[in-house]
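Case study 2.
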Amino acid sequence: MGFEFIKKLPTPEEIRNQYPIDADIQALKEKRDQEIRDVLTGRSNKFLAIIGPCSADNEDAVCDYILRLRKVQEKIADKVLIIPRVYTNKPRTTGEGYKGMVHQPDPEKKPNMLAGLVAIRKMHIRAIKESGFTCADEMLYPENYRYLSDLLSYVAVGARSVEDQQHRLTVSGMDVAAGMKNPTSGDFSVMLNSVVAAQGAHRFIYRSWEVETTGNELAHTILRGAVNKHGEAIPNYHYEDLRLLYEKYQEKNLKNPAVIIDTNHSNSNKQYEQQVRIASEVLHSRMVDPDLHKLVKGLMIESYIEPGNQKIGSEHVYGKSITDACLGWEESEKLLYTIAEMC
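Prediction:
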């Protein structure tokens, strides 16, 4: 057979019992979840900034970065709600390369999924304890979600996962905000259909159980740009794109219409410095159009301590991405203040 069964992994319940959270963390998460819910439902006028490294590859650097965000959050709390990106699963287009901390707690060592599951849970718990932030992660593997479900306040479904039935149905059982990205083709109908599915109730097989979900009214869209048949990036953050999405939303019977704009990936053609300009353009579109002011609820920004990226195995630079290139801290801090001024 092509499968080698290496070891049976603990269940989410077993890992959660081994690394539990206390009542303070539980209460903090409930408060954060409600604050994010209020933004997406329109009860709050705050703007979401989902910001952080492309991949969370080092616990110390990630927590250092998040503590810097905390200091900024205290100054812009009346306008902006920061959700740190702590992405522990990294989708790979070809299947090659670093797949995130859940695979490799140490990027320079061999994969170890058990150690990875423990490492990502400990990192998320540490981030909450030190900063008071509950964070965002990407749901690359639906069956792994419950290892972190008591810690996360935001879940993203990526461009290569958004068409998958299991991802959509798993989101329908969540009680936190979940962003569904447009597929790499850029098709808005695929993205919106994923939201329809995620907001609906379903019965399906999940982790060897027959389960039933009630639907997630906080499921929403994320625009991340697209790629044409020639492999060229096609941005979809411009005013015309946002108006089109608004009109498409009106055709659907969806709760809490909302979109987050991803300022990197195909929107920037992975030119990470362009994220500042893209963010400003989106905020301007939102300022001049009342419909878009209601629809555009936040930005997703790839940012770390040091700008750019580096290869694994090179002379390691602390706080520099080993996957996609990110804005450095100085530019990120300025951008967060600019966002607050324009909201």
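The first strand starts at residue 47 and ends at 52.
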